[in-house]
Amino acid sequence: MQPRSVGIVKTEYVELFQPPNELRLDSGEKIGPITVAYETYGTLNADRSNAILLCHALSGDAHAAGRNNEEDAKPGWWDDMVGPGKGFDTSKYFCICANVIGGCMGSTGPSSTNLRTGRPYGLSFPVVTIADMVRVQRELMRHLGIERLMCVSGGSMGGMQALQWTVDYPEMVLSAIPIASAAQQSSQGIAFDVVGRRAIMSDPKWRGGNYYAFGDPPLDGLALARMVAHITYLSEVSMRRKFGRRLQDRERYGYDFATEFQVESYLYYQGDKFTQRFDANTYLYITKAIDYFDLAASKGSLAEALREVTAKFLVIAFTSDWLYLPAQSREIVSALKVNNVDVSYCEIESDYGHDAFLLEVEEQERLIGNFLSGVAREHGIA
C-alpha cells in the first residue's frame, strides 16, 4: 500500500426513498427505492462536524481513494488528494463519496433492475438532473446522521454538484471547493455531449436502449463517445508533448487506414478501456444532466441564484482547460462577490487541460489543505 493511503476500503450500499416516499425529480416523475453506493474515509468526530462530501465527475464513482482489495491494480480516482496528510486529510476529516443517481457503479441507474418489471430500466429510467443527484446525496447524509457538511468539493461535474449544494442547502454547507467547473454547461460542451450521445444511439447494438438482454452492448458507440470526450480533457500542448506526430509501430506512412499515429492508438485504447467499466445508457443520462445544468436559468442571473449562499468558497481553475474555461470560474467568483460571499480564487498554470484537476496534485494539496484548515479553525472543528 502506498504511503498516506487510506488502505483497503469497502463500498457500502443503502436503499433510500422507499415507497411511498419516492424521490420527486425535476422532471416531475417519481422514483424509489434508490440504491446508493458510497464509501467513507477517516473518522467522523463526536459532534459530526468534520464531514466532507466529495462529488465525482462524469465517469467517476464512489471509489475515490484506497483500494477495495489487495488485488486492485489502481486506487480510487482521487487517491492522490484523499488520505492521511493529503489535501483532503483523512486523519482530520471524514470524507464521503457516493455514486450519483443515474450511474452504473452501484447506484440506481438505467442498467438497474426495475422492480416493477423485473428487467433493466433502459430508457424507461427517468431523466435526472444535477439537482436530483444532490437531493439523493442529501438523503444519504440524513441516513449517515450528518446535518452539516464542513465542505463539498469536486471537479468538473463534481464541481457542479458542489455549487448546487450551496444553493439548495445553504444551511448545511460551511464551505465549497468547485474545481475546473462552471455554473452552466456551455454551448460548446453541449455540442460535444450531443456527438457522444449520437455515437452511442447510432450503434446498431444500442437497440433503442434495450440491449441488456442480448449480452451484446453498443461498445463501438460508447468507445467513440469516450474518444470524443477524452479529447476535450486534454490540451493541444499536452497532446503535442505526449504524441506529436509520431507514428505507432511503424517508421513511415502506410498509405492505408490502419492505426498509424500514436495519438490514434491512445484514443482507441481510452475508448476500449472505458467500455469495460461503463454503461452506454448511463453515458446518455449523465451527459444530459450536465447539459441541463444552469444555475442562473430560473433566477435571471447567476448573482441572484447565489444570493442565499452562505458557504465560504475556494474556486480553482486551470489555464489550459478549454472544456470549462477559467473565465467560467471567474464568473462564479464575480457572482459570489456581488453577494459579499467569502471567496478565494486560484488559477493554476498547467498544460494538462481539463484533466489537470486530477493531475496537478501538489499545488491543489497546498491550497485545499490550507483552506480546510482555515474553515476548521473558524468553526471550531477538531
Can you give keywords for this protein?
382 residues, alpha/beta, Rossmann fold, Rna Polymerase Sigma Factor, Chain: A, 2 domains, two-stranded antiparallel sheet, 15% strand
CATH homology superfamily of the largest domain: Alpha/Beta hydrolase fold, catalytic domain
Uncertain segments of ≥5 residues (pLDDT<50)? Answer: none
What is the domain total for the residues? 2
Q: Name the helicity range.
A: 25-40%
Distance between the termini: 28 Å
> Which architecture name of the largest domain does CATH use?
3-Layer(aba) Sandwich
- The top level CATH class name of the largest domain: Alpha Beta
Walk me through the structure.
By secondary structure, this protein is an alpha/beta fold. The chain has two domains: 12-184 and 295-378, Rossmann fold (3-Layer(aba) Sandwich), CATH 3.40.50; 190-287, Orthogonal Bundle (Rna Polymerase Sigma Factor, Chain: A), CATH 1.10.1740. It contains eleven helices and 14 strands. Strands 1-4-8-5-11-12-13-14 form an eight-stranded mixed beta sheet, sandwiched between helices. Helix 2 (157-168) links the parallel strand 11 and strand 12 (175-179). Helix 1 (130-143) crosses helix 2, helix 3 packs antiparallel against helix 4 and helix 3 (187-201) packs antiparallel against helix 7. The radius of gyration is 21 Å and the shape is globular. The two termini are 28 Å apart.
